[in-house]
Amino acid sequence: MTTEPIAAIDASGGLPEGLAERAMPVVLRGLVAHWPAAQAGAASDRDAVDYLRRFDRGATVPAMVAPPEAAGRLTHDDALTGFTFHYEQRPLAQILDALLAMAGQATVPTLYVGSSTIDSYLPGFNSENGLPIPGAAPLASIWIGNRSRIPTHQDLPDNIACVVAGRRRVTLFPPGQLRNLYIGPLDVTPAGQPVSLADPTAPDLARFPRFAEALAHAQVAELAPGDAVFIPSMWWHHMEGLGEINVLVNYWWRRTPGWMDTPMNALMLALMTLRDLPPEQRAIWQETFRHYVFEADADTAAHVPDHARRVLAPFDDTLARDLRARLLQRLNR
After folding, report:
1. How confident is the model at residue 135 (pLDDT cuts 50, 70, 90)?
2. C-alpha dist (Å) from residue 200 to 12, 178, 190
3. Residue 311: phi, psi to the nearest 5?
4. Which of 196, 177, 186, 192 is nearest to 275 (CA)?
């Protein structure tokens, strides 16, 4: 099975214009090669660790720890009742020491610090290694670990992921491949997002035959220190840390107002309220959602006076807060 490379551009001069509105992924070669952190990572693992130590103020961080037999895959266990890893609270300095100590060893546990807010754990790092994104106020997070495989998942925000140390292999699947990715439980997840049960690094097509179709639409790239990848909202992505020490910084932002809730909450409520209706009733609600949500336009509520439209009017913070309060009252019955 072959995959296509992710489209790549030379971004050593900075972010290309209009990136924040882009709907397709792109590799940004050299985007952050000027960062002191990426230059340290390109020099050596020890230089990368020593650079991070400059900003450590004794923080304790949650780390995923998996035994060697997990082979770096941080996901559900075979029974889908637990995970291949457990969490430990450790000082960041201790994690950095452990990563250096394990480097060069053939069989080691996986040690992985995921999605930690940089300003909380490494204050001052952003002032030396910044990435202004026009029109966005992103959340900057850091990911630190040894060899790892993060199962295929999707995130609601747009994402620019920047490699600081080590190497990353990124495998992307379009949102339309949902059916072929064999997504696991929605409400019990390894790290907050539902994940694919199929492993792109060792496809089990006897168990997951439709995954072959997903792989036919996959896009893959390897990133070195200084490289980045733009992952649009809701694109599925599988992330592999290939180095003995890997550091990644990513920026998340949404192109929606702050009062908007996550659509995942709507999906969960729909599962509870709509999925098990009789087929003829589901069809009625499908048409209702089409009318009011997915194909809503200026004519949808044109017959209702402006002062009476309420939730049929354009939302703002006040209207969203009022509706959220009423929904909570109804749900807490």
Report:
1. confident
2. 30, 14, 17
3. -70, -10
4. 186
